[in-house]
Design brief:
22% helix; 5 helices; binds pyrazine-2-carboxylic acid; binds zinc ion; Rossmann fold; 220 residues; six-stranded parallel beta sheet; 8 strands; globular; two-stranded antiparallel sheet
């Protein structure tokens, strides 16, 4: 029997698009690539939303500091970001044109005002789960295909947690975009995910593996 597969679309939201509050370079290019992935025969399509209350601890404005500065909260380093993906704002909505009708689960993260959450599974202190793991286990999903934003933050931490939780993660590299706060961060994140056990693939390889049923995982 083939393993069940889920596409996990991470934080493809207005504030991460060019012109948004936390603009990620060329992130608009992935919308059509992800729509194509959505059209493939995945067993489940899950999307996540970064969804912060106003004055969230990860916002530089909360501390009268500048975005990019770092602070330590209860021994955990926090990079400070511009205000972004605030609950109820346009910036928190999915990117225009994204094929949201086919999502069968939406996971919210960063909702606790004192704790940031890069991973789609847990907050950064691992105090609270988002419910994603339970959903995937209940559905018997084993293979996870990650696409979205940002390669070096939310995609990265989600993939690392996925390996630790015993899922089989794939990173659809051309369907992701990263921040590269320091140049080289994206490449380093890809290498670390691979070293941890995730497979780096292209959307073309995913299409082939999902549409030709006689092929096996080796072709991905
Ligand atoms: C993200 C920084 C802050 C992400 C979210 O989606 O990667 N990055 N909040
Ligand atoms: Zn955030």
């Amino acid at each position: 029997m083939e393993k069940k597969r889920a596409l996990i679309i991470v934080d493809v939201q207005v504030d991460f698009l060019p012109g948004g509050a936390l603009a990620v370079p060329r992130s608009d290019e992935i919308v059509s690539i992800i729509n194509h992935l959505i059209s493939l025969p995945f067993d489940h399509i899950v999307a996540t939303r970064d969804f912060h209350p106003p004055k969230h601890y990860s916002f530089a404005s909360r501390w009268s500091k500048t975005a990019g500065e770092r602070i330590t909260i209860e021994g955990v380093e926090q990079i400070l970001w511009p205000d972004h993906c605030v609950q109820g704002t346009k910036g928190s909505e999915f990117a225009p044109g994204l094929d949201v009708e086919h999502f069968d689960e939406v996971v919210y993260k960063g909702v606790n005002y004192q704790i940031d959450s890069y991973s789609t599974f847990f907050d950064n202190f691992k105090l609270r789960t988002t419910g994603l793991e339970d959903f995937l286990r209940l559905q018997g999903v084993e293979e996870l295909y990650f696409a979205g934003i940002a390669t070096d933050y939310c995609v990265f931490y989600s993939v690392i947690d996925a390996v630790e939780l015993g899922f089989i993660p794939f990173v659809v590299v051309d369907a992701c975009r990263g921040i590269d706060l320091q140049s080289g961060d994206i490449q380093a994140a890809l290498k670390k995910m691979q070293a941890k056990g995730a497979e780096l693939v292209t959307s073309e390889q995913v299409e082939k593996s999902l549409t030709y049923h006689f092929t096996s995982r080796e072709h991905v």
